[in-house]
Amino acid sequence: MDAAFTAEQDEIRRTLRELVTERCGPDEVKAAVRTPPGHDTALWQTLAGQLGLAGLAVPEAYGGGGRTATELALACEETGRALVPSPLLATAVLAAPLLARLGTEDQRRAWLPEIAAGRTTAALAVPGASLATALGLAGDVTGDWAGGGRAGGVQASCDSEGWRLYGQAEQVLDGHSAGLLVVAAHTGGFARSRTLLFLVRADSPGVAAVRQTALDETRPQARVELRDAGAELLGADDARAVTDALTATGDAAAAALAAEAAGAAEAALTRTAGQLRQCERSGRSEWSGRSEWSGWSGRSGRSGQGSGSFQAARNRLADVYVAVQAARSAAYYAAWEAGADGARRAGALALAQTLEALRTASTETVQLHGGAGAGWEDEGPRYFKRAAGDELLFGPVHRLREDAAERAGLFAARPGAAV
Fold first, then answer.
1. Which of 41, 86, 227, 249 could disulfide-pair with 206, CB 3.0 to 4.6 Å?
2. Where is the composition biased (Basic and acidic residues) (predicted)?
3. With left for phi above 0 and alpha for psi between -120 and 50, is residue 206 left, alpha or beta?
């Protein structure tokens, strides 16, 4: 593994950081999530159409950038710093890779250029709260997570007019604003029970997507209802290929989510460090307002004015700093491994580590401010809500670690041991 980033990767980070800093302040983010799409559509057009984020990992033959999971993770890290609400995760990280892996040539040519150009957004719809299981992060993808023939899932049937879907999916990321839905549905009844993926146009008859209230408003979610909706089978009728594609997509998605969480954790830490410096140096006209760690680490408080309490706060944040940097390294490794050949299981562990680091950093942000501003209007608690919301969607942390340990055989019984 080469730990150094290329000049092109550094340029992606620099360009995105400048754009996010300029157009994604706290007020802009709050205004964006209160719009019907749940994100700034003009900003998304800049990110997708001009910077090419939507098609960053789409093959060049279909109008994309042909980049790897590493570039996508770096992009997510920068958008995660400001908790930018956008369809990036739903479209570029989840739906587009499934289209590229499973789709027929006609399906790829019909949809991937539209996605890469930012003209269409897409969303992955799975039944219930099974997103983490569907991606192979916290459970067996080969199970009956798509319904198993029982009520509550999404059922698919085929007649003379083609495939029809019936059921609903909850917690669909950006499902209310997507133009294309990639829907996981159960078919085959008891005899040939299997889960396949289908393409559904959001404006088709029988399709309704309603935005739901979410803990984290910067991560819009929807309930997708399908009532005898027409659908197109994604790729071939091959349940094993679907399982493999979902698992591979889950590895890359976990790396992107980990990088996003690492960026958010670093931003929360930087914000708290800046507030600490401001309190410590209050009354000094030369205070610059910078909030980088290096600007205050190791400095003592003003003599006789609470230096002990400032030192205690610095010690707490030093622990957070170590956790954030370790999580960031884990996210980078997972992104590299997701694009490498061979076994890929670092994504779930990196996601667990970064979500834990984000939860710790955001908790300190609230606690070290005396619990002030614990509502949505304050910038700090938004990071705590992102950590809690992502654990509900993709975790919890202990389940991610437990599943990774089980897959690695860490809990396998020793030969000859009693069971």
1. 227
2. 280-289
3. left
